[in-house]
Amino acid sequence: MPAHSLVSSDRCSRGRGQGHRCRQRRPVQGRGRPAARLFLLSRGRPSAAISRGSVQPPPPFSPARASVAGTVRAASQSLPARGAGRRRPAAGARSDSGRRGAEPSPAAPRPSRLPPDVGALVPERPALAIGPRAAAAEEAPPGPSACPSSSLFARMAVAPPSYCLVAFPPHAKAGHVVFGKNSARPRDEVQEVVYIPAAVHEPRSKVECTYITIDQVQKTHAVILSKPAWLWGAEMGANEHGVCIANVAVIGKEAAPVTEALLGMDLVRLGLERGATAKEALDAIVSLLEEHGQGGNYYEDRNSCCSFHSAFLLVDREEAWLVETVGKLWAAEKLTEGVKCVCNRLSLTTKTDAEHPELRNHAASQGWWSGGGEFNFSEVFSQAEKPTDSCAGQGILEQQEGSITMEAMIKVLRDKGSGICVDSDSFLTTASMVSILPQSGNSPCVHFFTGTPDPSRSIFKPFIFADDVKPVPKAQSPLLGDEDPVKKVPRFQEKADRRHELYRAHERARSITEEEEEQGQKLMKIMLDLERQGLEAMEDVLSCREILDPDEIADLFYDCVDTEIKFYK
What torsion do the CA atoms of 433, 301, 155, 137 make, to the nearest 10 degrees? Predict the structure, then answer.
């Protein structure tokens, strides 16, 4: 059990078999109940009150209060009483099979565009590949193992402009490592937030990833993932040991394979499930990459065959690793200080702390490196003759030296002027994540997820690992099982409706914002005020060393999602 675990472990007699170890709930100590139920306004029905314009923002949160429950009660006074308490769903793992019915999914609204100064980062429309990239698509073997070769498939002119960021003390405040990710994906793609508990697997077990099946390990860690609902892997996530991983798609001189293998997103999830530190996750990812390779369509779209190389940012409480790949080859740099922004371009230069043993030989064999002098990874493998040194977020973080907090990172992710928050004809920031990793192992890591598109109009909701985390089906897409168009061959012949309840509620709220500006602004103000109180509450959790109430922590993300949906309705 991690050192920062919120509960104790002891024997019990609950009829679960001899030798079962059950988590026993400790009593709350210290300053009373923590801020875990700050968002818990779900004991009322706010929809009618909001429609009448009668709901007022909740009173400011004050750490000096004897109990945060007082704040919640005060905030709830304007809401009608609710009936009996909800029924608690059974705990258990998220299943990736058994998906229910499918119907066409409407495209997300396109309310705005990128400012002119960053328009070059994101294509207005997909572009057709020419030269080696088009040839690679045509030469790929047909069938389920590759994108079909009977048609000319569109490829994006650039990789989707996602951003990963990390800040170490003293750039980050309070001895915390601060991690953030904006996931740019096709505009109508739905992301879900899924918790998967730790598990022990039978010998010779297999795990079915997005396109291929690989060997399973004996034990996998508990993870929380933000993932495109159609695939197995994740754009970003964290595990119970305080490891965070995110990836971005990149393009190099060498065409990315279209043959189906592991996706970069699959490797994110596999790294989280198998690594208790950033370095362990790195070892797991590069080992799987070398064994199985990466490739396959990055999008749920039969009209395009877009395949990319991957870059990963792996972070724990002490260090980070930037890993950039070209096919099965890779190089990595260890980071322990300063700030780093990773985007859709190769950025490693002459400093690499680990690399594939054949990396330089391959570059020399292709005529990209002379074999003598300095080996500059991005200059050797990038398409551009002079690759850009850094991404937009790098300078923004460097300007905030000594003041980077969870609030500051969220503000960076909401910045449309810099292009970090993407909103173009082709791409939208479909989900975002921020994590606070205290370098002191006595404090829990706190992770925030939106689970909805456009962080400038979404709410960051907190999650803390604990035993018996409550499943959040309202933030999970419907299961379609063998009828899923992803699993049928040929793939993607239909577009399934993967919108979960949180996504639908947020979609309705976006419509209100666009059609009724005053009412939309009022709703957003209320939601942002709730988010602010949640951030302050989590700051209080991070700064105190008292034992937290496990029941509240286990329900935390569920309650936040439930409350957000009620306000949107």
Answer: 120
Which residues are registered as beta bridge partners of 257?
none
**Phi, psi angles (nearest 5°) of residue 129:** -75, 150
Nearest to 428 by CA among 116, 113, 80: 113
Q: Mind giving me the DSSP string for 423-436? A: BSSSEEEEEEEEEE
Question: Helix, strand, or coil here: 333?
Answer: strand
Residue for token pair 């503000």: 411
d(CA 417, CA 415): 6
User: Sign (positive/negative) of CA torsion 492, 497, 499, 501?
Assistant: negative
Count CA atoms within 13 Å of residue 183 on its CB side.
31
How far is residue 345's CA from residue 252's CA, in Å, rounded to a whole number? 8
Q: How does strand 320-326 pair with strand 309-315?
A: antiparallel
**Which of 164, 244, 421, 560 is labelled catalytic?**
164
If one compares 378 and 104, the residue with the highest pLDDT of the two is 378
Collapsed DSSP state (helix, strand, coil) of residue 330: strand
Domains detected in the chain? 25-82+504-568 (no CATH), 116-351+381-465 (3.60.60.10)
Round the CA-based radius of gyration of the chain to a whole number and report it.
23
For every residue of 166-233, DSSP letters joined together read EE-TTTBGGGEEEEEEEEEEETT--EEEEEE--EE--TT-EEE-SS-EEEPPSEE--EEEEEETTSSS
**The residue to which tokens 């002490």 are assigned:** 318
Read off the pLDDT of residues 25-72 as tens digits, 9 standing for 90 and up.
333 333 334 444 454 444 444 434 333 344 444 444 333 332 333 333
For the question of whether the overall pTM of this predicted structure is more than 0.85, the answer is no
Number of H helices, E strands in the chain: 12, 20
Distance CA 165, CA 180 (A): 5
Q: Taking the CB of residue 519, how many other CB atoms lie within 10 A of it?
A: 14
Question: The tokens of 89 are what?
Answer: 């769903």
Q: How far apart are the C-alpha atoms of 30 and 32, rounded to whole Å?
A: 6
Name 383's Cβ contacts closer than 8 Å, sequence gap at least 6.
251, 252, 253
**Residue 322 bridge partners (DSSP):** 313, 333
Q: What is the pLDDT of residues 128-180, one digit of tens each?
A: 232 333 333 333 444 454 465 433 333 445 789 999 999 999 999 999 999 99
Q: Which residues pair with 9 in a beta bridge?
A: 23
Report the length, in residues, of the chain.
569
Active site residue 391: no
Strands 236-239 and 223-228: antiparallel
Euclidean distance between CA atoms 437 and 241, whole angstroms: 10
| Distance from C-alpha of 275 to C-alpha of 286, rounded to nearest angstrom | 12
By DSSP bridging, strand 354-355 and strand 339-342 are unpaired
